[in-house]
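Now for a sample.
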Amino acid sequence: MSQIVILGSGFAALSAIRELRRQGSNAEITVISPCDELHYVPSSIWIPAGVRKAENLRLPLRRFFERHNVKFIKAAVTGLSAAEKRIDTDAGPVTADQILIATGGRFIRKLPGIENAIIPCEGIAAAEAMSAKLAGLDGGTIAIGMATNPNEPGAMRGGPMFEYLFILDTLLRRQGRRDRFKLVFFSPSDRPGARLGEKAVDGLLVEMKRRGIETRLGHMMVRIDPDRVVTEGGEITADLILFQPGMTGPAWLAQSDLPLSPGGMVRADAGCRVEGTDAIWVAGDAGSYPGPDWMPKQAHQADLQAKAAAANIAAVLQGRSPDATFVAELICIMDSLDKGMLVFRRGKLNIVLPALRPLHWVKRMFERHYLRAFR
């Protein structure tokens, strides 16, 4: 029986499992990950407002693995040999006929003092820490910002930072204490969120002004102190700092023979096959793919890549040509706790809808629909 090993247990990994079985593959599938839970981080934006609790967003995967006949190995990847089709882990080496890398990326932590900021998308625990810190403040300044990978500008995840910005503004107004807080948004870019499209950027900047949110844009960051953000254009004194740095590939790639992009991610083709290999694939944030410069690092895009990779793996094992490709597609609803702004991009099409109350509920309904398969 053919052996497929999937590295990771997030969105891309789980979508690949479902697609492999849908394609009729009866191969033995093994998942290697330190965690046998799905952490639905997109909804962690609602933790500060009490709309979601951490336990709502951590879903055990045991039953999902059982339903899809998947073997789980609790281990962390430490390296990979494409030539030998071998994965090195802290629990020992594992070999396979086909390997899918779906471990996700990591945030760059090179900025001096970055430990003084909370990086929201690092996980549910980060959202809990931010919520606890906010609850302990009677007033002050909240600084929220983002940056990218200078060697691969598309390697970033900025949407959640806009969501936190608007959600915190709405939450503080509901609590009757918005007048005691100053919200400041900062970014090295003059036009933050450009991957969403120019119309979306205009809308975001107008919304910030309407809500009384200050902006500090276009200045490179120098460091983050416990009580301030220091940029080349000045300092922002802050009581709470949320910062989303750019992304790169997982650290274990340094112990592999895989081809890497300038930003440190695995280079792949349009079918998600790792360049120069015949049995190694990548889906999600760990990869660098051909496509438009606005191609997002988000769960939806990871799902599309995972489905293409899984279809190609199934084709190879069934003696067919692996000709599936993924569509570059950005779709997100940027939530503000009571409304949502829809942004969609595919090809030359770029749709931006203004903040509407029904879109907030659409986002919540999508969460319920998406997680149904794993509950």
